[in-house]
Design goal:
2 copies of one chain form a homodimer. The first copy, chain A, is of the alpha+beta class. Chain A is 43% helix and 13% strand. In chain A, α1 packs across α5. Chains A and B meet through α1, β1, α4, α5 and β3 of A and α1, β1, α4, α5 and β3 of B.
């Protein structure tokens, strides 16, 4: 079975040509993003477009000094947003509900659906993009910097521009690892080894498990991000406990 | 400024022609989905493809009896998944970290990026789709039904098939409502009224605020989903408190 790709190939682009996007192109991309599906007509997202150069440099510093954040012609912060619809309700003298976990769930999904539609539209016209999970590194300062109020949660950044590099497509795990039939099934040792082999070329050491350990292992990058993310979720009104 | 759309238009399709997808088409869609960007090479998602007819009916019942879940040629449950990479680490005798909030954040984003790329690929070949947030209504029973272990969290469903209806594109809020310049800015009353007008045609009553109130207002559907979602987050290992 051949699996001919349907969409333009995705490679994260981290080196951009200096020329800006054509006038109106960013708006076309956002218009396409807005066509993404949205739960309950809520459109629970906001994009903060960072054009101010000093602000862009500060966001880059807060995200672990990623040069492409500064150099990309366009850079958006994708935010989950339940604030806007809450204010529509209040404008009409309706009492909004309290649903921090459910709000975070649906708004994160809504925002990410819209952002990926934007990425697919960008790649369809030959633009390059890279998503920046590293904004979580300095997320508390970022929230202040962008004046994100309660009900708004930054999720990731997206750099957009004309590609200044031609990276190869990076490998992926086997389809059998992500596609389950009727019920979830854990991988056996053989399947894990197959994925380790498939992913080996994604890393200099040839050992995918070392990359995973650096991010997801004890003491790794994800654990380091945990405290700041929790404080931000509380600060933005998305924290909850069993009791309510 | 004209904002010509780049991708195929998105309309959620809830009536499907009965014929199945061509052999291998679902796999092509999943292969395209797997090309989506993924944080730290983690590919933190799983799709559970529901083919068993009885299982499909049960999932539909748990999701508020949505006929298109039963009738769609294909139906996938999109899951955030940090379990698979945790097991790769354990297979190599590495100790996984503990990062429930960060894991949920990145895995929800990863899974949703992949799912939207799948939707965009499906629409590019003329297929129709609808995303099903309603799986949250019976999420605890769903987790049991699909045998989703700790580290795996169901997010939403996706129905896929050849369109048996031609719905019009639904309206969206103004671009100015979702696209912010450098800092977040709340809408003023005029902008809220503009969006209420723009969205009026999405609802039978002509009053978008009524739809929003039904879902997001006090006592609404989102509040009703909150307790079950919280229990599921705890059960699947994604809950946290300030203390740890």
């Amino acid at each position: 079975m051949t699996l001919d790709p349907i969409l333009a190939p995705h490679r994260s682009i981290r080196v951009f040509r200096p020329e800006p996007l054509a006038d109106g192109m960013t708006e076309r991309l956002v218009a396409d993003a807005q066509r993404a599906p949205s739960d309950a007509t809520g459109q629970m997202y906001s994009f903060v477009r960072i054009r101010d150069r000093a602000l862009r440099r500060r966001v880059s510093e807060l995200s672990g000094d990623q040069r492409h954040i500064v150099e990309a012609p366009e850079f958006l912060i994708v935010c989950a947003d339940i604030r806007r619809l809450t204010r529509v309700l209040e404008h009409r003298d309706q009492v909004p509900g309290r649903f921090p976990a459910t709000g975070l769930h649906f708004a994160t999904v809504d925002a990410t659906l819209a952002a990926q539609r934007l990425v697919d539209a960008a790649e369809a016209v030959g633009l390059g993009t890279v998503c920046i999970g590293g904004i979580l590194t300095g997320i508390e300062a970022l929230v202040e910097l962008l004046a994100l109020p309660a009900g708004v949660m930054p999720l990731f950044g997206v750099c957009i521009g004309w590609p200044g590099e031609e990276p190869v497509e990076r490998p992926r795990v086997a389809m059998a690892s992500v596609l389950h039939a009727d019920r979830y099934r854990d991988q056996d040792a053989e399947a894990i080894e197959r994925d380790l082999n498939a992913m080996a070329s994604t890393t200099r050491s040839g050992d995918w498990a070392r990359v995973l350990a650096r991010y997801f292992g004890a003491g790794g990058i994800m654990e380091q991000r945990e405290a700041g993310l929790r404080r931000t979720l509380e600060h933005q009104g998305f924290a909850w406990t069993r009791e309510g």
